Amino acid sequence: QNPITLIVPFTSDRGLCGGVNSNIIREVKQYIKDHGKSQLKIVAMGEKGANAFVRPFPDLLTTAISDIGIINFTNASAIAYELLDQAEKHNCDKIVLLFNEYKSAIAYN
Fold first, then answer.
1. What percent of the chain has pLDDT over 70?
2. CA 47/CA 38 separation, integer angstroms
3. Residue of 94, 92, 18 lying closest to 52 (CA atoms)
């Protein structure tokens, strides 16, 4: 059996974060191109990511989580539970988190 990977891109829900969101979306598209669609599923974190993947990858997008608000232990636990539930539901062997790393006011990794 081929392993299935769950991709979890972290994007924003709203705001002026175009470059930040675009980099994550571009990274996911490249990951899909490199690994093939048949072995991947996506759980989008944030409205911008969900909107970006719903048209080109409706078969890969399993769910989207948005309007999280303040990140605290309760919210983080709920998100982790949902990710593990989706991974189990789709028989995923691996979860890949894609996010930006803040470096300075003008640069993200």
1. 91
2. 24
3. 18
Q: What is the pLDDT of residues 57-100, one digit of tens each?
A: 999 999 999 888 888 999 999 999 999 999 999 999 999 999 88
Q: Which of 86, 94, 79 is nearest to 3 (CA)?
A: 94
- Whole-model pTM: value is 0.86
